[in-house]
């Protein structure tokens, strides 16, 4: 029960940070400002996601696999490739399920950037929620203050990471002409999976622990695919130093948080 309560608090915090990030959309009143903010946040989210793919996903996947007595590079490599291939297939297949009048443009353009961004961030939030849930479950099981402090630090780090991700979803949706409320709901909804899967992990901690290395690396592959395929080109890095600086700041911040915490 303690593990369940701890996990609810930890993943609830990470979800709250996603909500706060998505709420940034309410503070931009004009399209001109939104375009500038979009470049900054897309670049910032790119840097955060690149760093998170390495320090929050791939390295933990390797460490967790080795702790389980497995070869760390196997789930890291193959899970990563599966994540990339899955998103590539999704980009190709989803347009064919759209209504006939919209299909030609969808097939031509592939999966829209916003849809892919929402899916990738939601997908990567699943193993992150599981990781937080597992950390709190282990702390409660061993009744260890050290493990509890580590779990709290993990939740704080992931929560801070979720802030720019929520903003990076809500701002482009608003820029596409949707209402602020709808953009906010879409950004916030991407974080719902964290408490859900965090709590499920507490209940099936043993099985989840075996799957975690693969899920972490799978999410890393999906995230990097979106960064390279969609976010960096859309940030217009070649036309403005703002987007480039956003990438560098996001990467530096996430790397520092992951290593320090």
What report would you give on this structure?
With about 260 residues, this protein is mostly helical. The chain is about 85% helix and about 0% strand. α1 (about 1-20) packs parallel to α6 (about 145-175), α2 (about 30-65) packs antiparallel against α3 (about 75-95) and α3 packs across α9. The chain is globular and about 50 Å long. The protein contains ten helices and no strands.
In short:
By secondary structure, the chain is mainly alpha-helical. The chain has helices at residues 2-22, 31-67, 73-93, 100-109, 113-142, 145-175, 180-189, 193-203, 205-234, 241-260. The protein is 85% helix and 0% strand.
Give the SSE map.
Layout: H1 2-22, H2 31-67, H3 73-93, H4 100-109, H5 113-142, H6 145-175, H7 180-189, H8 193-203, H9 205-234, H10 241-260
Helix pairs in contact: 1-5, 1-6, 1-7, 1-8, 2-3, 2-6, 2-9, 2-10, 3-9, 5-6, 5-8, 5-9, 6-7, 8-9
Q: Helices and strands: which structural class?
A: mainly alpha
Mean pLDDT: 78
- Listing every helix as H and every strand as E from the N terminus to the C terminus, the arrangement reads HHHHHHHHHH
DSSP E strands, number: 0
Main beta-sheet annotation: none
């Amino acid at each position: 029960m303690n593990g369940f309560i701890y996990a609810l608090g930890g993943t609830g915090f990470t979800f709250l940070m996603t909500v706060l990030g998505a709420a940034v959309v309410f503070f931009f009143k004009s399209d001109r400002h939104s375009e500038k903010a979009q470049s900054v946040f897309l670049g910032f989210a790119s840097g955060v996601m690149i760093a998170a793919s390495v320090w929050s996903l791939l390295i933990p996947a390797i460490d967790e696999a080795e702790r389980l007595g497995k070869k760390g590079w196997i789930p890291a490599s193959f899970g990563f490739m599966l994540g990339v291939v899955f998103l590539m297939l999704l980009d190709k297949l989803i347009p064919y399920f759209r209504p006939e009048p919209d299909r030609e443009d969808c097939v031509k353009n592939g999966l829209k950037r916003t849809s892919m961004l929402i899916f990738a961030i939601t997908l990567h939030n699943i193993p992150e929620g599981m990781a937080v849930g597992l950390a709190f479950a282990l702390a409660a099981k061993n009744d260890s203050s050290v493990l509890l402090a580590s779990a709290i630090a993990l939740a704080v780090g992931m929560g801070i990471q979720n802030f720019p991700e929520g903003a990076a979803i809500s701002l482009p949706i608003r820029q596409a002409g949707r209402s602020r409320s709808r953009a906010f709901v879409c950004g916030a909804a991407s974080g719902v999976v964290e408490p859900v899967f965090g709590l499920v992990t507490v209940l099936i901690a043993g099985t989840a622990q075996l799957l975690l290395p693969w899920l972490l690396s799978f999410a890393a592959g999906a995230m990097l695919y979106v960064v390279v395929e969609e976010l960096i080109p859309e940030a217009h890095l070649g036309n403005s130093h703002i987007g480039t600086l956003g990438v560098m700041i996001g990467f530096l911040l996430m790397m520092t948080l992951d290593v320090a915490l």
